[in-house]
Write the structure tokens for this entry.
Amino acid sequence: MIRVALLAGSMLAVTPLAAQDHSAHGAAARPQPEMDHCAMGHLLPEQCPPKGEPAPEQSPEPEMDHCAMGHLPPEQCPPKDEPEPDTGTDGEMAGMDHSSHGGMSDKSAPGAAPESALPPRALEGPRHAADAVWGEAAMVPARNQLARENGGMTTGMVLVERLEARIAIDGGEDGYLWDAQGWYGGDINRFVLKTEGEGEFGGALEDAEIQALYSRAIGPFFDLQAGVRFDPEPDSRTHLVIGTQGLAPYMFHVDGALFLSDRGDLTARLEAEYDQKITQRLILQPRIEIELAANDIPEREIGSGLTKIEPGLRLRYEVMPEFAPYIGFEYEAKVGETADLARLAGEDPDGLKAVLGLRAWF
Amino acid sequence: MHKVSRRRLIKSTAALAAASALPLPAWARGASLTHAGKGFGEVSGEDIELAIGNHHFTTGGRSGHAVAVNGTVPGPLVRLREGQTVRLHVTNNLDEDSSIHWHGLLLPFQFDGVPGVSFPGIRPGERFTYEFPIRQSGTYWWHSHSGLQEQAGHYGPIIVESANPDPRYDRDYIVLLSEFTPMHPHEIMRKLKVGEHYFQRDMLTATEGEMSGEMRRMWGKMRMNPRDISDVTGSTYTFLINGHGPQDNLQLAFQPGERVRLRVINGSAMTFFNLRIPGVPMTVIQADGQDVDEVEVDEFQIGVAETYDVIVTPPSGSHAIVAEAMDCSGMGVASLTSHKGHIATPPPLREIPTLTMVDMGMMDHSGMEGMGGMDHSMRDKSLVPDDVVVGPGVDMIAPMPVDRMDFPGLGLDGAGHRVLRYTDLKARRMNPHREIEREMEIHLTGNMERYMWSFDGKKFTAFTDDPIRFGYDERVRVKLVNQTMMAHPIHLHGHFFELVNGADHMHQPLKHTVIVQPGGTATFDLTANEPGDWAFHCHLLYHMHAGMMQVVTVRPFPEGDGA
């Protein structure tokens, strides 16, 4: 829930004050009107005011005017008129100066009616003009298809985020892990399946879960997801799930969820990862997974509080964007009471693993 | 097929043909497809036959399915005369509905060719007849307005010869720019929806790019990508000139001293091209088929669906016509040559541009300290009118969008030679003097991550019954505000609008398509004098498919009157 609150906070953060500052600056930057230029026809008509009103702004720099007015061919315009795309911040600032002849943005038509002042004749006739020519019966299927084909797309994908072998570097058993999800739906509403699990080579499956979720876009970057989770291993158990998944500021992919089990246990999990391109195909991905529990769950050897932290680093090579083998390592640590329980049971509460796997989607 | 047979047969000359063609098409029955020809033939006259069919297409190392008209990609040049009446008989040999939209032609709305807006579409096996008088001259083009067929090759050029021949040139060529991809268009659309920046293989990396760490963090904070120049790139596209890829060595011949008119048409689905002929200056004489005062330039950007006519007088030799994709992921190349067989060597690809704060609509700032821009909210709902729905489909609201009609286009602002800008265009013929009666603002909105695109935050699915309304002969100033970081070529069917580009108001240039630069605005004046319902959309095919479309209606119109 902490996660949800954080996300909501970051998404809703708007800065109206900054916006007000901004327009104030724009106004302050306007130079004095120069009526002469307009009278002489030197200025573009849009930069000239309608008669009797003060002139809108124009560039304070005369040489810029010549360029805007077309008196000079473009190549004779000062270089700051044409910022190099790669000169960084300075170049960008120069570019702004150029277009910030605020006059250019003032193309309002004095005396014109507002958008909502439709002339009555604009509402005449049948709802759809083509129905009058081809008949409604012929047009309706075409119209439905047009709507479907221009914004009504449903599609889906399957993403195998991690399919890996895990080699225990500091002793212990080697194992395997999978972590995949798929979705189908439109832009806003989707059906999502998630599954993950792990086990030891030659041993039994240790953990496995599958989630079936309804997902709804609640902002430009985040989906709210709710549904059920079923764990066939270690003990068959069912949870209600509510969570959120999306792209946080600074391009972190995050996925956080709360789970309420059929025995009343409340747990949470948060995953975050970041893709850093080293080259166009070589991508370094730091990833962290944190688990929490609101209460002790003795049969799973879990104590309340923070229960597990798993930071990892994976380096993948995108043979195709859809197919990327990777290597990396991951540190897996039980913490707090959960670590104590592990020690009591004679287990190592943490371990370092080298991972070798595949990220793929289709 | 049962779906088709259940449909009520509409009044059509081809009901019988449709019925007999209902069984599976030849290629679905296992018959092999013929290869589509590269380039095009020519059709003209009062009655013109066009047949849409499935074919195979190969260029360079890429080959795949194509939809070809009269067996070629592009389809045939339709040559018309100003003042004639034409009957275009279009036979659909596909196993899905099809259509032809006559891009830029003034005509009765029911023959504009947009299924669901102007007519029901052309059923498989049907032969549909478009009939209308030709009221203009210039360079135009035609293309499918059904599904994503345009991507697959269903497009071609139109020349309407003027009643008064232009003496300024000796030779006349079409230069039709487009793309070929072996990938199915629906698969491209799916990858755009599900795979983050799937086709963009030139992203900023840890080691490449000169952007400062501070700027990188600012982009990251906004969850935006400064290399979002083109959604679909040379990673899957081979760029074509008249259906010829760079390896097909297309030659356009001329005699030294000749004045050659090049009718440049951007018939691509998704690609803006920067076009130049190194060493050969170009004199622009038409934009979107309409005469403009001559402007000499060394390069110009042509947005999807735009046309420019230029006259060149190349010196003896072979000159490369270079149509470089805006993101520099590839180029279309042809040789303009006075020596048959001599292939010009094109210059290497330039560097992909990187978006700047101006492209985010963060103007400003002489007076602001440091990174003033970082203080701006990038999604302040109070900056847009109430009718803009700021939901999951809108990832950004430009803090301070300004008019960018003087911007030459991404990648060209530092070109180092003369580049065309909208502010250079001036109508050659005087437009009627009209006062502006009403003002209107339309916001171009989107979400790059979810690949959602819309007008005013509403996908077409959301307002099919709520069109943009104009009274007949109403004069309206329309301001398009681009709340995204991509350039959108916005096309209004059935009309020419006047760019409010600084030319005096009697000489504002006429266009059917206008590029709205990232984070900026573009303004046009429209006299809504073509009655009926018209499509209005972003001409990036997959943006339209994602919902960036609307219907414009001009009322009243003469009901039930065929033409």
Remarks:
- Chain A touches chain B through 106 residues (CB under 8 Å).
- The domain at 156-361 of chain A is CATH 2.40.160.40 (Porin).
- The longest helix of chain A spans residues 136-149.
- The helical segments of chain A are 2-12, 16-28, 35-39, 62-69, 88-99, 129-134, 136-149, 336-344.
